[in-house]
Amino acid sequence: MKNSNRLIYTDNLEESLEEVASLFDRHTKFYTEIIEKDKKVIKTFNKDFKIEHAKEVISKAHLKHSALNAFLIAAPSYGIEAQNALLKILEEPPNNVCFIMFAKSPNHVLATIKSRLIKEDRRQKIPLKPLNLDLSRLDLKDIYAFLKELDKENFDSRENQREKIESLLESINRCQICLNEQELQAFDLAIKANSSYYKLSYNLLPLLLSLLSKKRSP
User: Fold this and answer.
1) Residues 89 and 192 reside in one and the same domain
2) Would you say which domain of life the source belongs to (predicted)?
3) Is the pLDDT of residue 37 over 50?
4) If you ran DSSP here, which 8-state letter would residue 78 be given?
């Protein structure tokens, strides 16, 4: 683990962070913060990781490190702008720096982030419900029927809709369909649109059409 950038899914952020920290001689922990009225800074796991936190990580990572320093980043969720800011440094870490991120769900992390990190799942296993769609035999008729049925479903939260997008990505991995950077970014945009209350079928349609086009390409 010591020289690998990783993304660890865990039910207990603090417990997993402390366990991983014990494996490194040098480490830097990044929590999000709450500043109380008396200006006392309280470390917490109950606040989103935002762009200001990402800038702090990047700034400290670019300092000179004489030995391996593990940057441990934990938050209940990560802002899209903050994640995009981390993309370059995760792909090309400075000398003697490795990054380990902790998240409670794959849904909380962009596909472009996940593609840059080795993933380790320490959560109690609750599998995503598979989509009622056979990607190996995908055609326009299947896409139309699937989205029509999807529009009839009564989703009780945006998180449930997001899980549908994540299920599609998981199905793609199971079918061993390779996605390029642009295609991964399309999933990120779909997740962002989902959080902005776009209709789920509208988000999935371009993804499915892209898969169909990929399937038909020689």
Assistant:
1) no
2) Bacteria
3) no
4) B
Q: What is the pTM of this model?
A: 0.60
Give the least confident one: 4-13, 80-89, 192-201, 205-214: 192-201
On whether both 69 and 164 belong to a single domain, the answer is no
Domain match, 105 and 165 both:
no
Q: Are residues 98 and 160 in the same domain?
A: no
Q: For residue range 157-191, list pLDDT tens digits in order.
A: 667 788 888 889 889 988 888 888 889 889 888 88
> Which residue, among 163, 164, 172, 166, has the nearest Cα to 134 in the 3D structure?
172
Last residue of a domain, one of 72, 87, 121: 121
The reply to whether 129 falls in a domain is: no
Range of the domain at 31: 6-121
Question: Which residues lie below 8 Å from residue 65, measured CB to CB, with a gap of 6+?
Answer: 26, 94, 95, 96, 97
Residue 155: the pLDDT is 63
